[in-house]
Each structure stands twice: as structure tokens, then as C-alpha cells.
Specification:
Bound molecules: coproporphyrinogen I
Subcellular location: Cytoplasm
Strand content: 5-15%
CATH topology: TIM Barrel
Order of helices and strands: HHHHEHEEHHEHHHEHHEHEHEHEH
Number of domains: 1
Family: Belongs to the uroporphyrinogen decarboxylase family.
GO molecular function: uroporphyrinogen decarboxylase activity
Largest sheet: 7 strands, parallel
Helix content: 40-55%
Number of strands: 9
Main location: cytoplasm
Enzyme class: lyase
Length: 352
Amino acid sequence: MTRRQLEGAPILDAAAGKKPTRTPVWFMRQAGRSLPEYKKAREGIPMLDSCFMPELLAEITLQPVRRHDVDAAILFSDIVVPLKAAGVGVEIVPGRGPVMDQAITTRADVDNLPILDHHVTEVAEGIRIILDELTGKQALIGFVGAPFTLASYLIEGGPSKNHEKTKAMMHAEPETWHALMRRLVPTITAFLKTQVEAGIDAMQLFDSWAGFLTEKDYREFVLPYSVEILKEVDGVIPRIHFGVGTGELLAAMGEAGSEVVGVDWRVPLDVAAERIHALNGPKVLQGNLDPAMLFAGPGVIRSEVARIKAEAARAIEAGHATGHIFNLGHGVMPNTDADAITEAVRIIHEED
Ligand code: 1CP
């Protein structure tokens, strides 16, 4: 396919370090349970089944774009979709998250983990439907989970509070750990290639739980594999890299190679930019409104948005960053009022 050329799409301009026509904004988890139309569309369909239904995944991806006037769609999928497509036994349990049929505990489990070796045609077809409906100013962001965050679900067997089995394997059986990382990289890369070849305009690498690690462990056990994945699309589409609670890891995560670094709400953007800049030179920032602020009313949202924009502007002025894509510091919470999201987007687009 020939990739669409989006002239003046605010999010792509910002990602490229150019001045956008308005502050670009999208929200992590903008598709999903905060929207009544999502609940209706998904009724009776298991989460992971819906990720393999081209028309349905396209519809759910487009719902928040139609409703909120955000500058990008995020592909409706999940970080475990490539595992499922490879034949790994995994389901998404409502109210909980991804749960594995069998946790990975031994080297033999690692060696038997299936590798994705084909295009996920259902997702490629869904992407084509989405691109047909988006305007030339609205980007489609694809995504994959990073090897560390995926490994945590595989080793813990499901969502984890402390990631203790994952860290234990890293330290007690480093060879098994590295073998698992090496086995996950091709699966993640294959799923990313499916999306890129189908025409996504940008991508985000979610290493959601990387913030649980020390910088030393992150560098030794995680970073080289995230580097490999991001390298696959170097110069092809803009790359965003994000994790939660990664204040201490921002510089190291910047080294993974993305153009854009996502920042959670705990660190002001100008402080984050200083940390990233110190080891990487200036990059584009993404973030970082606390998702809880969407419950606090328009007055609070307006002042928080002004603070965040001012911090981004300070970072750019200081030469520590080259742009800013507005987002939350983590995903939209499921019980968020959909109208509060629309209002927040309106406020973010104000005064530009
Ligand atoms: O708008 C969107 O962003 C929707 C697309 C999307 C994305 C980007 C979904 C659908 N999942 C994800 C990525 C994802 N999945 C991440 C990285 C983003 C993040 O940090 O939030 C992670 C960690 C997962 C794993 C996962 N899947 C969880 C978290 C569990 C835990 O450990 O706390 C959950 C709850 C899911 C299920 C899921 N994925 C997506 C939706 C809409 C849901 C809810 C299921 C439902 O509606 O029944």
C-alpha cells in the first residue's frame, strides 16, 4: 500500500517537531467503556473476539473520534491480541484484564511459546475501514505492548499488583528471561508490521508496567528489546513510547529510540523534558493530565490544562523538547462521564 500523506494533521506535525494548527489531543483508552455506544456495539461479544472482527473493531475505533473531535483514533485492539493470534491461550476477563490459560514458569514453557508468523488479516481489514472514514487531519495510531509488559501477563498468569514472579525470573533465571524476551520480539514485530502495512499513521509502544523496575534492571532486562521493536519502523511512521510511573526511567526510555515520549501525570512536563533531553537531546512530549481530573468539573480541567500547556511551552522554550501532544497521564477510567471527555477536548483546543 502507499501510506496516506497527511498534510497539516496536527498530531503528525507535532510529532515531527513542526508547529501544529491546534494543540493535538487524543486520550489513551478513549475507545471503550466510557462510551454508551461502545457497550451497545460490544453487547454479548467477548473482548478478544471483537478485536478480530474488522467492521466492529473499526466502528469502536471511530466512535470516540466522532464524539469528541480528538485529533487521532487509537486502534481498538489489545496488547495480548498478537499472542492470541499466535495461538496462545488467553482471554480478557471482564473487570480484570488478560488472563492466561497457563502461566509461563520454566525454560520449556518459554521454548514452547508460539510465535506469530503471519499477518493478522482481520486487523488489517479493520484498519482499511477506519482509514476510509478518517479525514486527512485525523491520524490513526496503531500500537503494540512492549515485551516487558507482555511478559508480566505471561509469567504472572494475569494482571499483577507487584509483578513479583516476573522480577523473580529476571533475577533468578536471567537466561530464561532473555529467552522469553527474544521469543516475544518477533511476535510483537509481526503484529506491528500488519498494522504498518495496512496504513497506520503513527504507533505507540505501551510498556505500561515498566515503572515497577529500577533503572538498572530496565536497562539490562528490557531496553534492548524495546529498541529492537522501535527500530523496525524507524523512519516509517512516528513512534511514541509510554509507561506508567516512569519518572525515574524517562531518560532510559527515551534511549529506546522513539520520537515522542509519553509522560504520566506524576512528573511535570518541563521536568520530564529536562530528564529526557539530558541523555537524548530534545524529543516531543506526550501527556499528561491526570485521568482523575475528568471527574473534577470544567473549572479544574481548564486550570490543569493551562498548567500542562505552560509546562510544555517552558520545555520547548528551554530547548528541552520540540513539541507537545496532549493526552492523559494514563488511560480514561471506565466510569468517566463521556461528556466530560468531550468538554476536556474542547478546552484543550481552546485559545490555540
Ligand atoms: O481506546 C483505547 O485505547 C482502546 C484500545 C486498547 C488499548 C490501547 C485496549 C482495549 N487495550 C489497550 C492496551 C492495553 N491493554 C494496555 C496498555 C495500555 C494501558 O496501560 O492502559 C494494557 C496494560 C492492556 C491489558 C489490559 N487489557 C487491561 C489491564 C489489566 C491490568 O493489568 O490492570 C485490561 C483491563 C484489558 C482489557 C481491555 N482492553 C481494551 C479494553 C476496552 C478493555 C476492557 C475490556 C472490556 O471492555 O470488556
